[in-house]
Queue: 2 jobs
Job 1
Amino acid sequence: MIRGERTFIRDLVSEKSPRWENVPRMSCPGRMRLSAGAQERLASSAARPIADAWCIAGRLEDSCMDRKPPWLELLDPTADVGLRVRAPALKTLFARAAWGMFFLLTDVRAVRPVDTRTVHVEADDRAALLVKWLSELNFIHQVERRVFCRFVITEMSSRSLIAEVSGEPLTSATNVHMEIKAVTYHGLSVRRESGIWKAEVVFDV
Amino acid sequence: MSDVGLKKIHDFLWEIPANGAMRVPARIYASRKMLADITADNAHRQAANVAQLPGIVCASLAMPDIHWGYGFPIGGVAAFDIDEGIVSPGGVGYDINCGVRLMASILKRSDIENVISDLLAALFSAIPTGIGSSVGMKLARKDLESLARKGAAWAVERGMGTQEDLEFLEERGCMADAGPDAVSDRAWERGACQIGTLGSGNHFLEVGYVSDVYDERAARIMGLDADAVTLTIHCGSRGFGHQVCDDYLGVMDRAARRYNIALPDRQLACAPIRSEEGQQYLRAMRCAVNYAFANRQAIAHMARMAFSAALRRPPADIGLRTVYEVAHNIAKIENHTVDGRARRLCVHRKGATRAFAPCSGELPQAYRSAGQPVLIPGDMGRYSYVLVGTERAMSESFGSACHGAGRRMSRQQALKNARGRDIARELAGRNVVVMAGDRRTLGEEMPDAYKDVADVVEVVVQAGLCRPVARLRPLGCIKG
């Protein structure tokens, strides 16, 4: 957010009478590739350009979907998105599922493990535990505005899990690609096949 | 009867007759050409599953924008007897009271065409969008509880909008009997800093104009003159509503077992309306409904400020007023006449819009001769529609109609399709300026990813559920 915008919104919420004159004057940057006329008008105006992070013009080339690790597959329900994860051990499976969720949410490889916290969740069974675990991380992500990149499961049973998760606060430079409304029970599975642990989970986005 | 068990009632209505555990038939409003998509998605099976739930009245209905959802299909309408029926969070959806507000101004298209990019920038700057968007401050619990009881009036009390706005909102922007005590701490926390934010996914703000008028009289009543500049707001109850739904899915899962309700799909989890769990969910859901009303009211107000800032004119010279606001993810207790008998029903609309006929006491006085405006947004490159509800909707679909275009491609298909393309530039070529927090969002939400909303609207009009009033075309769009 730029200064001005934040003040304006705070005024709104704090019952101060907001004034339209206070809305920061801004305009689209030239990179928006508007018509020549619009470009000219923008060039001649004293309007402030919007931060580059907000500029969405340009080709969609690298959707980061290309660089997913071999143990991660994306499921493709029409309006939502899901993950299929494989791992040699159950703890790794849960850690990878969390990494996969943040892979969907942000450029997870760019997140730095600045600080670490402990997360503890409990559930009735192993599949529900996966939903609880991912829901907890999504909750912290949304409420505390943080992103995570490293997940170490320190203790685990079929009904509870303790993990050390590392990440950093969201900044204006963090790319967040989507918002997960909820981790669902639809098509949920956690199972072992031929010595390999597999999990599937769908997110409502 | 076709091989998927659909029997034709007429060209725009198909039925799966009650069979097996179905208590009533499932009826789907669609054209023949839409059926392939609907059945490929298995959404018709979901409509049939809903028909198995206790207390369901008449039929499990689906609108032409039906697609697969969690348990209940999106585009589904199901009404349950208030004494014998159930209420289900899955029948409302995660984004409780996701809805659409249409505003119209005294400006004409020519007044803003040259400044549309400035206007979009001002809107983008004033209204936080996108992921985890937040106003950068936290509301105290007591303010949030007050908001959850008062809905849009909470925002108006704080100088965001006018009493006149409230007159033109479904439920006047507030559902009574909201119960803050039924809402979890987690929901309060998720909702604390998201009021006045648009959210992500398919939520948007769109500046457009009235391009076609089909019903002069109704359009005049709504102030939708040809070329008038409009603003459409599509968003919901944000993390607050998502958490309420999530919390009660767990509660209902246990309740369904406790009340011995046989469920063909666990995600149809529900409880009797009269049960403790059913009542608690309804009270919590109404808090989320009111949160969404307040959210759209705050956004509408910030949009007025942004219009003024961009055009350097005071709000009175722009005259951006609320035409109407509809909720399309909601459960409400309503009175309907079924087989000549007055019934009190709990109507679930999940991705479906209320479409009440003229003369309904629920409508603002000004619209009683025209009928309830039904707002059907399309994708960001084409057009949106304003319709009105009819008597036929009252007698056939519990006063309900469709809610939008519906996706044609999954998000990943859309991204694949968008690779190598510059969607913002393509839309600029169609004279639509777009802004989004993230380039990927634009790829996922590009026009080709959606069905043509005109096809959906044609079905509800041909089936007699709605009458067309006007068509709006976009000039600029902000995607969350």
Job 2
Amino acid sequence: MAFRKRTEDISAIDEADGIIQAQSVVKIYDTGNAKLHALKGIDFAVRRGEMVAVMGPSGCGKTTLLNCLSGLDDIDEGIIWIEGENLATMGDKKRTNYRARRMGFIFQVYNLLPVLNAVENVELPLLVANIKPSEARTRALAALETVGLNEWAHHRPAELSGGQRQRVTIARSLVNNPAIVWADEPTGALDSKSATDIMNLLRTLNEERGLTIVLVTHDAGVGEQCHRIVRMQDGSVVGEDFPTGTPSEIAHTALGTRPEPVGATA
Amino acid sequence: MEKLFGVPMQSIMVVLLAMLAICLLSVAFIAWRRPVIFKLGVRNIPRRKPQTILIIVGLMLATLIISAALGTGDTLNNSVRSAAVDGFGPLDELVVFDNNPDEDANIGQAFLRSIPQESIQSVRAAADGNDDVDGVAGVLFSRAPFVNVGSDGVPDPATLADIESLSQIAVGTDPGVNIAGLDQDSIDHIGGVDDLDGNAVNVENLGDTGIYINVNAADDLDAAVGDTLVFFVGNQPQTGVVQGILPESVITGAVSAGDPGVLMGLGRLQALTGQEGRISAVAISNRGGAEGGLALTDDVVDALEPTLTGADLGIVPIKQQSVEAAEFIANIFVTFFIVFGLFSIGVGILLIVLIFTMLAAERRAEMGMERAVGAQRRQLIQQFLAEGAGYTLISGLVGTGLGVAAAFGIAQAFKGFIGDAFDITPYVSARSLVIAYCLGVVITFLAVAISSWRVSRLNIVAAVRDIPDAYTAQRNRRQLVWSIVMIVAGIGLIALGNSSGFLAPFTIGVTLIPFGIAGILTYFGANPRVVLTTAGLLTLVFWLLPDQLFRDIFGDYTGDIDMFFVSGICIVAASTLVIVQNLDTILSLVERLGGRIKGVLPATRLAVSYPGANKGRTGLTIAMFSLIVFSLVMVATINDNFSAAFLNDKAYAGWDVEVEVSKENPVDDFEGAIASSNVDTSGIEAIGRVDHPNDGGNQFLNKDGEWGNLIVSAGDGTFFDTSDLTFQARASGYESDAAIIEALKTESDVMVINQSLADGAVADFGEPVGQIAGTSPDSAFDPAPVEIRTGDDAFHEVRVIGVIDSEFSMLFGGYIGTSTEEALFTGTEPQAVSYFLQTAEGVDPDQVAKDIEINLLPFGAVSTDLEQQMQDDQATQQSFMYVLQGFMGLGLIVGIAAVGVIAFRAVVERRQQIGMLRALGFQRAMVQQAFVIESAIVVILGVLAGAVFGLILGYSLMTSDDFTEGAGGDVAFIIPWTTMIVTLSLSVIAALLMAWLPARQASKVMPAEALRYE
């Protein structure tokens, strides 16, 4: 089984609790005139139920890493396993199906469809997964209630504030009960109050539902609320932090795990 | 082409050049005074190449359509004009018998009344010293049946005398070949004639049997130099040996384009026809060759006319008249093409507005930023104008070029069905190219300017934040002002319509008022959906009212061909408004439908969301498809119903075969002649005789007090009894069709006419038509007296007592009975006689026609299978309509291009959203489905609206009293299913393909890449 072929560096996360495994991931952007090495052989692993922040300066490859790990982008070298499956062997259709059933996404710019109202946006992943429309609507409303937006269910994105839009995005990412939620700068476009609310919400979901969350952020405050912070620079992982005295420790305690430093390259 | 819609083309070109210069100077001004703004605009052109190509394709279509329409006009004009100019060769005027100095000479006299051969000298004397005249020739015309017996020499007399023997050795036959007789002196006078091999014609060397034939006769008879031709004059066989083949021209016998002809010495033709010392006409050649002499015609006519009048001669500017007729024919076609092309041009303009509205939407944030940092509104307009000018100038060139290609294609199609009459040669004049280019560029430029002005009025904050513009009090006030303007304009137009009696201003006025009222009600808080839907529905009801109900309510108005376009615009505008106002309901139905199909709901949900969110864009696209489909369905409906009504069994009054015999070889006893020949007469049930007295030489005083040519046909009792004629209007005193028929057989001063001669008949494209005052085309009238000048210059008065149903569409002119014929044409032999045959069931009319033609060859009998003739007529009309529909189909290309532009823009606009959808689990196919379903909704709504309303209006027209009475009543409405299904399916498929291609491309992009897109 491919999962057993992990290198020693990431072997600390075994099949039972590992959900994301990446090895020697290389991503090159060919702009025609030049080749940009966005990811330079990254090893990375995340345990099931873990909340990991990827941090680093602009252009260091954080979003690229998230895109590659989630299967939104192809990689040039290396291997990525998600829940034990090699992404490279999945093919576009299977990978898309997998995203529909097992993943949720939160983007900095919300990426809600402006022509649909909040509940229609939220139920979209369920309709894609062939859930009955009536059931999809019930679950979408429930998801909106979870994020405190049930009263705004029939408003279009243009009629919502930034924080509300991001809550809709979170509701959408949760509605299909995903195994992993990927969040790219989820608080980047929000004021500090809204950002705190959103992070509290994510943390609660992680704690209560055991969601695995991988988020990319610039905000140290956001990173501090995660179990683990992976630091990147210039396309490489340059280190990890385990915030102490933070809710992450509590989370790890709850999980009964203590992640080892993994994927760090010199 | 010299005129378009009555305006000289030269003037149109000068005005358009001036407008183009203003457009270009505006852009030059921007480039000079606002170089930064200019660069900002122009740099957008190469920014997204595929989009630029689509825009250029979209913008060029208006130019293409104009260019194609003008090119078609040029081609037809040039071809018909060439036929006229080449046919007359060096001859510009004909001098004919004319003893009425008060009226213009009538060309028909050349074939009715000969003049003394000395007239040649008289004309030469009159032209002596006139530098504008360089030749005068005398010509005698006749006509005879010809048989080519090949190159084995002259047959023996027994063979010549026996038609069966002659038939056995015949290589080719033609029952009606014109013969022109000229002496060498005349030929030399007009500059000589060369045969196709370049040898000079010399009739003095022809001897007793030599003849020349023209190319048409060579084709018809399959004849070559050295072949012997047998022909019959005065029922006596004659022979001629072909000495050379000549080009087509009047002096080689081609009196009309395409006529087969023979040239022989004047003396021989005079002797054969017993007209020694007589000629038909004196031909005059002006200085300057075939084309150059034309300009001198008026001077020559003015100079010679006074001298000739005293000698019972008149001068006819025959080449000039033919050229003017060519212009007229070309103008009819161009009017058709331009009017129906207006639909496509209208669609093209909508597309231009759509393109620039979408470009503005794309750059809304940029424009908001520019406004925020101090750019004036006019600078935004200037920026768009600079960009638009770039697209426009290029697309104008491309469109003009492709228009020429389309005109050439149309010319090829024309060749297929009128190529027998004229040699269709594709030709587009430089002036037409300039006009098409200027008009296309100016239209596009104006559309860009208006679109730019609209988009420049953005709200800066809303634009920067990319949120919808809020309604402001100022904007509401503007709406109120516009609504009031619409009502005032509507009332003004209604008044104009009432005073002028024209339908267009009246109907446009009535259409504007409900929308004006709706605008005011909305301003005061009424539900826009309710009031605008009501206004739209009221407008549709008004436009689609049955004809009689419309007349009962609003009275009678005069409409012209332009009403097609006016009705199309108003109906489509109203229907689109109703659809857009109720789009949410329609879309929710579609969504419910999509929800029933497993796996399609997510794509359907997306597909129905975007059209509803962009109602302006959706409405424009629906309007584009509606407009073009409306026009196509209307034309197809009219065509099919017209064909069914007028080209049916009654067109030839139920007769199956027509046999026409000319006076040169009269048949004294037709029934006896065919009975004694090998024709099987057992299948012939009835034979009616129609004389054509003084054919081409009769005139009547029309309702404007002018003499117009009148075709008079005189039927015998059998003809009228068997034809079973019906009349759409009867004079008082003749209360039934039978009473009219009886009067025609017994009274000596009565005539019935076809509909186009009736007072108030549909005008023939604005040209003065001969109509008889006092006759009503569709109701009872008092017997209308009409003065007739017969070919012998005698004046008579007859009474019109009936108007023949238009269903008998092949009966032209006036019909009289034998009593009236004897009174009008006492002692004159008819110019030609037609024998109409009715055949028994199961008998092949074509075989009967062929048998009679071959057996009566010595009489030059021309037989026609009328059913076949009718089918040919139908085919010709269908072909023309297909060409017209093909031309109008260019509008569909505009619509399809519009879908392409919209889909391409939508894909660009939604790139990030596509990335997000793919991230959420949308498969590639689902993304494509969403785009295709979205386009399908819009396209199908447009197509359905256009087809339904086109059909309803077509039904209203085709079942109106005007049409049904014209067609003889009891007309079953025909829906043009074939055209509709083929055209509409193809257009929907093509449009969906245009939507699918960019969607497919976009769905292939990796989600991460799409999400990065800005």
